[in-house]
Structures are given as C-alpha cells and as structure tokens.
Amino acid sequence: MKMKTGIRILTVLTLVLLLAFAASAAGETVISDAASLSALMGNSAAWGGSYKLGADIDLTGTAQDPIGTYETPFTGSFDGAGHTVKVNITADGPTGLFGVTQDATIRNLTVTGSVENTFAATDAETKIDGKYPGTGALCGVALSGTTIEKCTTRATVKGPGNVGGLVGVIYNYDAHTVTVKNCTGEAKIDSSLGNAGGFFGRIQISSSATPAVLVNGCSNHADVQSVSEDRNRLAGIAGYVRAEAGEVVIENCENTGKITATNSGAKASNCPFAGGITGRIEAVTDATSAVRLLNCKNTGAIESSHHAGGITAYINRSDRATKTASEIVGCLNTATVNGPSHAGGIAGYTENRCGADVRSAVKNCENRGAVSSSACAGGLVGRWYGFDILTSYNSGKVTADSLVGGIAGKAEGAIFCETNSVYLVGTADTAVGESNPICAEMGASSVTADNAGKTDSFAGFDFASTWKSSKDGPTLAAFAGGKVPETTTATTATTKATEPVATTATTKATEPVATTASSSATEKTTEATTKSATTSAASSASSAEPGASTDAAVTTETTVTTKQTEPTGTTAATEKTAKTDGTTAPAATSATTAAPAGESSGAPIGLIIGIAIVVLAAAVLCIVLVKKKKH
C-alpha cells in the first residue's frame, strides 16, 4: 500500500512538472529553419512576440531584412538557446539581424556571416529622417529598455559610421535601462566614417534610468582597425560615448584586440581617438551626466595617429555635469600605447571643467604597458586636467619628445586636482612632465624596484581589498587571477527618477528628430581639432586641443523640451537627413503590434496564473492521497 501511494504521489509530481514546462513554452514560438526566420523578418506584426531557436540556422540564399525599424521596433524576446544564425544582410538604414529594438530581450545567440549598411553618408553625423542608421552584427540600433545577454558576434560588419561588432548605436532617451551583459565580440569591423567599436559604435543618452546604460562582463577579442575620414573614435568596447543626462556605466569589461585608428587625411582636423575600452567620452548638458569605467582591463596594443589611452583616449566632463562624477576606477592596462599628440597608460586626454564638490578621478588604476608619444606622454594620464589621480600605480616605460611623466605628461587647467599615485623609478624622470599650480603633486612619489614589493612604499593604497602586494610591485587584486572581476558594482534599477530633461516614458521608439542650430554647435566645436594641436602640445597653449574647445561648446548647449529630443551633439550643417523613400518617419509608434497566429502575446501573466493553479491542484491531490492512506 505504501509503495502504491508513493508511486501515485511521484506520478502527480511528474505531471505537475510537465504541465509547468508546457505552460512556460505556451507563449514562445520555436524557430528551427531559415524559412521561418525569414518570415519573421518580413512580418512586422510579429515583432512583439516571444521566440526561441530550435536549431542553428543558415540564412544564405534566403530573403533577409533586419527585424525591427524605427517605425516598428522589435519589442519582444528572442532566445537563441545557444544556437548560431548565419546572416548575409545588406540594408539601407539600421542594419543587423535586428534593425531596431526597444524594451526587447535578446539572449544566448551567436551571429556569424556578414552585415553591411549601404546608406550613403557623408560623415558620422549623417542621418536618415533625423535618425542615425547604426550598423551591428546583432542589432543596428538599441533603444530604451533593450536587454542583450550572453550573445557572441563573429560576423563581418561594414557601414559608413556608427558601427559596432554587437550594436551600432545605443540610444536611451527614455526611462528604462539599456543592459548588455556577458557578451563576447569577435567581429571584424569596417567603418569608413568613424565611431566604431568591438561592441558599440556609439552610445548616446538623455535618460532618467539608473543607470541609463549598463555594459557588464563583455569581452572583445577581435582587432579593431579603422582608417577613417571623419570622427575616428575607436575602441574595443565603445567608440564614442556621449551622456547628455543620466549615467553610462561600463564595468568588468575586457579588450584583448589590437586597436588602430588613423585618419585618411581628408578631414585631418577630426583627430583619431583610440582606447582599449572607449575612444571618446563626453559628459555634457545636464547636472546628472556622467560616464563611469569600472574594473575594466585592456591587453591589446593601442595605436593612434593622434590621441591614445590604454582604457580611454579622451574623457571630458563639462561644467554643467555637477551632480555625478565621471571617473575611471579599478582599471588595468598591460599593453603598449602610442599616440603622437597625447598618450596615457589609462587615459590619453582628460578634461574636467566642473569645479563641483563631486570630484572626478582616475582611481585605483594600474598601468604596466609602455607609453609613447611625439609630444605628451604619461604613465597614467597624458594630459591631466581637473581629474584627481589617486592611489594608482605605473610601472610602464614612458617616452616622448618633450613632455614625459611617470604619472602625467602635462598638467593644466583652472580646476583643482591632486594626485598621490606612484610610479616606478626608471619609467620616467619625474612624476609630471609639465606642472600646473592648480594640480597638486605633493602626494606623488616614485619607488625603486627594490622597494616596490613593500606596502609601506604606497601610502593610502588599500592592500586589504583593492591591491595585492608582490615582489614586483602592487597589482590590482581583482585581476590577480588574470580574469576580469565578475561582481557588479552598479545598480540596474529602472525606476523613474526626476527627469533631468523633458522626455516621455510612454512613447515608443520616438527617436529624436532634427536639432536646433544653437544646440548643434556643441559637436562641431567639441570636435574642432587642428593639426597645430599636435605641434603645440609641448607649449602652454592648448586651446586648439579637442577638450579645450569644450568650454565654448558648452555655452551653446540648450536643454531641449521636445519629447525624445535628438542629442545636441550634432550640427545642422552635418545633418544630411537623407530620405530613402521620400517619407517622414512617424513621431511615435505603437508597441502593441499584433502577434502571429497561434501565439499568445499575453503568455507571461497567464503563464504565472496557470502554473500557480496547477501547483495548488497538485498539492491538494497529494494531501488527499496521504489522508486516504492514513484511513
């Protein structure tokens, strides 16, 4: 009797599990062949559904179009289930397996093959109907609320500008975080007009989400090279990052590929920016604007024909970004860095124009790579302006024709900053190549090789948790095992805060339209760099450098009040607003597109209720069986 009762209970529990599994799959369409995936590509009414791959798919010879447009973005979920999709997509607009996504989730997918954007751009700021046509193997443009997890790209990706191995452009002008986690980049990038990265060509935000963009645990292993006519911002993770309100966090990321940025000469004033993690960073316009690079690592050689940095080539914080500090914390570079104008083991060119109490810093960072420049080179920072350089260590050799420092090549500016960092004797003759009274160097020191293994040679360094002592000098504990840290240090909450600019959280895919002429001056003046900057880097005159022009640019920025307004960093002159079909893109689109026949678009809620009922029924049945046994 006991045996029969046990069998009955086991049978009931098995049925419960089977029913739960069936219920969970009820709202998910399985795609197992090229014809079905091609059908999804051509059916915009189905772009709000839930999908899962049942096999590897090769789309060669099949009709292919990106899934999602600005007018009708993909808003559903797509689980690759560990499978690979081989694409051969050519489009004129946002280009990738997914064209445009919003409030969508894509995970567990590998993309191979080729993706090409044939849009006829004249520079990296050229748009179609007021919108950037980004190019990425997985996704052309990712809008607010997009989540991408555990995806790998091995495709060849080609476009005229804003090209990324994973996503061409991330825009967040709404109130939900864009999250990219645990992805791997092995894509080959070709961007003829600049803004390119192993993962992202461009990240641009004006959002109340906390943070607006979170990139965590991503690794690029492909070489990223670009000979571009314009705005050659190049990096292993993100070529160009611009925060106009809200915060971008890039953490626990790694680049192992070689980064090489060269201008073709056609527009030599738009100088290349090559960095291991990011190329060029701008935090402008709003008090909440900030970009934070945390616990990132670069082991790929950095080569630029102008600015170069092991972690970032350029980072700027305007005088309006008063509430949140842009910073580089806990980052490591082990590769060579070369930039004729400015080069730094961590950052090539820094500029903080904000004198607020919330200080910006390069903190707890380590450089082991050799740094070289024709003009200005620093073991940690090339040009030092307004950023504290705290408890960081350089053991890489630093060489330049004029300005050389074991910590910084040149200090300048009117914003107080300080350093208590340490450099190894023999890497440079002095801590800072050219000093500035506003930049306090009193805490800076050098250490001999014999004393590098002694913790008391590094005052203020935290050897309990942040640093690890070794005979050759301190190393960051997070990288002691050779891996990037896995812990997440930034919150991914997407609850609304006080909106820094007037945006509307309820409007779907309302990609910004044309900017005003007054606000558009920012990008032009910020990017205005002349050849004289290279030759004059050794002198006190720095107004020709890209960062120094930011003050003038900031005064022209305006806080726009239209819904989902276009970033202020583009100029009316460079916005070529090319219309491919003679129509104007709608200002808003609906997120409630019809699901394909047989699919339950409301499955998640029904799924939860169904599982709950089944589990309760099973529990009651078990109790009844037990009671019968007792009687």
Keyword list:
25-stranded parallel sheet, 11-stranded parallel sheet, 32% strand, elongated, 55 strands, 12% helix, 631 residues, mainly beta
User: Which runs of at least 5 residues are low in confidence (pLDDT < 50)?
Assistant: 487-607
From the spread of the alpha carbons, the general shape counts as elongated
Overall SS class: mainly beta
- Gyration radius (Cα, Å) is 26 Å
Instruction: Characterize the largest beta sheet: strand count, sense, and whether it forms a barrel.
Output: 25 strands, parallel
Q: How many runs of DSSP E, i.e. beta strands? A: 55
Helix segment tally: 6
Mean pLDDT: 80
Multimeric organization: single chain
Distance between the termini: 12 Å
Tell me the strand percentage band. Answer: 25-35%
Q: Percent helix among the residues? A: 10-25%
Structure description:
It is elongated and about 65 Å long. Helix 1 (2-25) packs antiparallel against helix 6 and helix 3 packs antiparallel against helix 5. Helices cover 12% and strands 32% of the residues. It is mostly beta strands and 631 residues long. It has a 25-stranded parallel sheet that branches. The protein is built from 6 helices and 55 strands.
